[in-house]
DNA sequence: AAGGCGGGGCA
DNA sequence: TGCCCAGCCTT
């Protein structure tokens, strides 16, 4: 045993202080029980076809904060389009982003490509086996490191995600708040004790399957669990107290005017968002933050009211026109009222977008738009990656203006 | 340690 | 509606 490893063990012993660990005999029975259940009940998932590190890696990145059912079609499509680490490393970013459209957390795919390029340059095109090396790759944190090491390479590394923390907190009646990042190491320490050294990948995945099928956040029925005899909170009748998880802050409202501008050729003005931050490098109709738009829309008798403060309608139009001319160099004829309001909830923001429609009549007025903007015909929209709010604006436009 | 970063499914 | 989900990066 190296010096570094023994230090980690010492540290984790301290963390475990207060949480009584089971005797080895009980640990052995637990492993056997859980793995037997997994052998029978495990889900047939595309990335479980073999132990190819690339296949496992892609699935783990997609599954971050994303449900299995959502991921499957994206996964199949992605593996078809980018079947190897090399293909991923050499892909064009906009093609990559398009393959990720709708999955969310788009920096995941940009980081994954950077990691693929790291692997081509530093590791001869092969995913490294050493967890220390794996965790150096962009976008791969403690969880994904453990997942790849255990599932692809059979190493006894913990892979602690939300499922594992929930299951463990119920098994051992752990009061630590699982929303606090610092508490992850408690659960890692326990998993290092529990993990089956011969089938670490199956062991980790058994926790995932248990967490998503039986040991769920809601509608939890501990009496149905294959490991109920090991479940301390079930035996003590305290299971409804676990896990302890502090609440997240509410999404902050942000108000925009969305300007759907059509030119004489029937093309629409699209803008590429900045390369960093929210929805980086994705395409939307011009969005103008508008503080006067401080009301949620009410649709009464087919008419949209309440989107803007009363008496401020004219001011909103003036602001929008000024911004369109200054930033986008267009002077469209604009509807005096928005035709719809689109709402979109992110994890930390809630957008309210009052959608206006306008046309640029004269051809020469639409010639000098900025570099990050294009006039795009709807038949070419497929080549542009649209985030949720953009798709909602476009669908609303189609339903209002494109019928009959 | 806290906040930014998507989107959909569910009661 | 609010909460949840096979988290990671930046500050």
Automatic annotation (TrEMBL):
Q: What is its EC number?
A: 3.2.2.31
* One Pfam assignment: HhH-GPD
| Matching CDD domains | ENDO3c, NUDIX_DNA_Glycosylase_C-MutY
Q: How many and how are cofactors bound here?
A: Binds 1 [4Fe-4S] cluster.
Instruction: Tell me where in this chain the HhH-GPD domain is found.
Output: 62-213
Needed co-factor(s): [4Fe-4S] cluster
Which reactions does this protein catalyse? Hydrolyzes free adenine bases from 7,8-dihydro-8-oxoguanine:adenine mismatched double-stranded DNA, leaving an apurinic site
Entry's InterPro entries?
A/G_AdeGlyc_MutY (IPR005760), DNA_glycosylase (IPR011257), HhH-GPD_domain (IPR003265), HhH_base_excis_C (IPR023170), MIG/MutY (IPR044298), MutY_C (IPR029119), NUDIX_hydrolase-like_dom_sf (IPR015797)
Q: Which UniProt keywords apply?
A: 4Fe-4S, DNA damage, DNA repair, Glycosidase, Hydrolase, Iron, Iron-sulfur, Metal-binding
Class of enzymatic activity (EC top level): hydrolase
- Give a yes or no for keyword Repeat in this entry: no
Function noted in UniProt? Adenine glycosylase active on G-A mispairs.
Instruction: Give the similarity note.
Output: Belongs to the Nth/MutY family.
Protein name, UniProt field: Adenine DNA glycosylase
Q: Which organism is it from?
A: Carnobacterium inhibens
């Amino acid at each position: 045993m190296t010096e570094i490893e023994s230090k980690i063990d010492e540290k984790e012993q301290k963390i475990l202080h207060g949480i009584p660990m089971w005797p080895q005999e009980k640990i052995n029975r637990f492993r056997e029980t859980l793995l037997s259940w997994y052998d029978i009940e495990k889900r047939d998932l595309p990335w479980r076809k073999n132990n190819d590190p690339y296949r496992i890696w892609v699935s783990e990145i997609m599954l971050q904060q994303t449900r299995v059912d959502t991921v499957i079609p994206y996964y199949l499509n992605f593996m078809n389009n980018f079947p190897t680490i090399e293909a991923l490393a050499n892909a064009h970013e906009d093609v990559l982003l398009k393959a990720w459209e709708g999955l969310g957390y788009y920096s995941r795919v940009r980081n994954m490509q950077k990691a693929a390029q790291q692997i081509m340059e530093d590791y001869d095109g092969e995913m490294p086996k050493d967890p220390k090396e794996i965790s150096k790759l962009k976008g791969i944190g403690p969880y994904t490191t453990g997942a790849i090491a255990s599932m692809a390479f059979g190493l006894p590394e913990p892979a602690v995600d939300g499922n594992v923390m929930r299951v463990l907190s119920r098994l051992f009646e752990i009061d630590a708040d699982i929303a606090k990042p610092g508490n992850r190491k408690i659960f890692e320490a326990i998993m290092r004790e529990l993990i089956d050294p011969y089938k670490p990948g199956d062991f980790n995945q058994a926790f995932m399957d248990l967490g998503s099928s039986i040991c769920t956040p809601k509608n939890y029925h501990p009496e149905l669990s294959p490991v109920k005899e090991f479940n301390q909170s079930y035996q003590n009748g305290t299971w409804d107290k676990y896990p302890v998880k502090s609440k997240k802050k509410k999404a902050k409202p942000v108000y925009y005017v969305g300007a759907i501008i059509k030119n004489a050729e029937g093309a629409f003005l699209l803008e590429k968002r900045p390369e960093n931050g929210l929805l980086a490098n994705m395409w939307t109709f011009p969005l103008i933050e508008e503080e006067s738009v401080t009301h949620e829309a009410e649709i009464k008798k087919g008419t949209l009211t309440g989107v803007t403060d009363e008496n401020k309608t004219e001011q909103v139009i003036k602001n929008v026109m000024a911004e369109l001319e200054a930033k986008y160099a267009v002077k469209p004829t604009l509807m005096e009222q928005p035709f719809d309001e689109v709402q979109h909830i992110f994890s930390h923001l809630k957008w309210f977008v009052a959608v206006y429609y306008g046309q640029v009549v004269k051809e020469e007025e639409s010639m000098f738009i900025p570099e990050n903007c294009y006039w795009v015909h709807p038949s070419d929209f497929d080549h542009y990656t649209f985030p949720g709010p953009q798709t909602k604006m476009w669908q609303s436009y189609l339903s209002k203006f494109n019928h009959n």
